[in-house]
């Protein structure tokens, strides 16, 4: 580490001192002194204060994340917990079915017939998810009256996302104003409203809107009606939304899939 230069004095031509100017320590020297200096009580206090501020920031972030649940009503929390429990049970049932299918295939008994039956069942399931096959089952109907045309496409899309998160397996939207209906699938988009109508998946849909969703009625209804949820947001737009649960509903509007332009089936592995 370089040592600081010696203090120097300016002299006159006669050798007498005029001014004494101490040389400033270099940057490295100042850094070394700061690091090697023993901390005093003030330094320790500042360090503790910084640590407490960091801890408080982390706690505040966690509190903000939990605000939605903390401010929810007891009935809302019960519905959310019940929905999670039912979803867990459905997943456990699916795992058990898949394990049973695997055992049947591995056992070799009626392998070809079992494989064909499973393929047909998967085709029906895929058709429902892709919107190319009708669907029936329990669910909800949410009716949205929007006389001022203030319900936006963003709010409608939010409702669809909430229904999907709640386990909706098939969704259909009908525009009662012009008798149009759309099967909502993965690539369905929402625009508007413009000129009193919303564009949903390329279809012009005029209010009032009717959303039919198949899934667990209690969970789907709770996903729409919890505090500051979709229903509350719709009512903030001077519109009205009602949710009704049903034991049996039918969705019969079909989606016409488009031929993919870029994606093609991947070649099968010859080693399999």
Topology diagram in text:
Blueprint: E1 8-11, E2 17-21, H1 27-36, H2 41-65, H3 67-70, H4 74-107, H5 111-130, E3 135-145, H6 153-165, E4 170-175, E5 180-184, E6 190-194, E7 197-200, E8 203-205, E9 209-214, H7 217-225, H8 230-236, E10 240-251
Antiparallel strand pairs: 1-2, 3-9, 3-10, 4-5, 4-9, 6-7, 7-8
Helix pairs in contact: 4-5, 4-7
Describe the 3D structure.
This protein has 272 residues and is α+β, with helices and mostly antiparallel strands. 45% of the residues lie in helices and 22% in strands. It contains eight helices and ten strands. The protein has a five-stranded antiparallel β-sheet. Strand 7 (197-200) and strand 8 (203-205) form a beta hairpin. Helix 4 runs antiparallel to helix 5. The radius of gyration is 34 Å and the shape is globular.
What keyword list fits this structure?
272 residues, alpha+beta, Alpha-Beta Plaits, 5-stranded antiparallel beta sheet, disordered N terminus
Distance N terminus to C terminus?
A: 67 Å
Radius of gyration: 34 Å
The chain-level mean pLDDT equals: 78
Which CATH class of the domain at 135-251 is shown? Alpha Beta
Order of strands across the biggest sheet?
A: 5-4-9-3-10
User: Sheet bearing the most strands, described?
Assistant: 5 strands, antiparallel
Question: Strand share of the residues?
Answer: 15-25%
Which architecture name of the domain at 135-251 does CATH use? 2-Layer Sandwich
According to CATH, the homologous superfamily of the domain at 135-251 is: Protein of unknown function DUF881
The name CATH uses for the topology of the domain at 135-251 is: Alpha-Beta Plaits
**SSE class:** alpha+beta
Order of helices and strands: EEHHHHHEHEEEEEEHHE
Number of extended strands: 10
Number of helices: 8
Helix content: 40-55%
* Low-confidence region ranges: 1-7, 9-15
**What coarse outline follows from CA principal-axis ratios?**
globular
């Amino acid at each position: 580490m370089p040592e600081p230069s010696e203090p120097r004095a300016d002299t006159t031509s006669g050798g007498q001192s005029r001014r004494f100017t101490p040389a400033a320590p270099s940057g490295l020297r100042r850094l070394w002194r700061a690091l090697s200096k023993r901390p005093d009580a003030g330094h320790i206090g500042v360090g503790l204060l910084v640590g407490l501020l960091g801890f408080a920031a982390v706690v505040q972030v966690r509190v903000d994340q939990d605000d939605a649940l903390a401010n929810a009503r007891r009935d809302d929390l019960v519905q959310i917990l019940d929905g999670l429990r039912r979803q867990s049970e459905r997943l456990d049932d699916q795992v058990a079915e898949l394990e049973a299918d695997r055992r049947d295939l591995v056992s070799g008994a009626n392998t070809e017939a079992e494989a064909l039956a499973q393929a047909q069942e998967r085709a029906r399931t895929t058709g429902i998810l892709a919107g190319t096959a009708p669907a029936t089952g329990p669910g909800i109907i949410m009716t949205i009256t929007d006389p001022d045309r203030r319900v936006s496409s963003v709010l409608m899309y939010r409702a669809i996302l909430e229904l999907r998160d709640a386990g909706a397996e098939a969704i259909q939207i009908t525009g009662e104003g012009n008798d149009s209906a759309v099967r909502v699938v993965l690539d369905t988009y929402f625009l508007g409203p413009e000129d009193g109508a919303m564009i949903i998946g390329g279809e012009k849909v005029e209010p009032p809107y009717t959303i039919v969703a198949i899934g667990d009625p209690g969970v789907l209804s709770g996903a729409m009606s919890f505090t500051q949820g979709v229903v509350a947001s719709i009512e903030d737009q001077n519109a009205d939304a009602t949710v009704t649960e049903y034991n049996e509903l039918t969705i019969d509007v079909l989606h016409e899939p488009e031929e993919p332009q870029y994606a093609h089936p991947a070649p099968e592995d010859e080693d399999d």
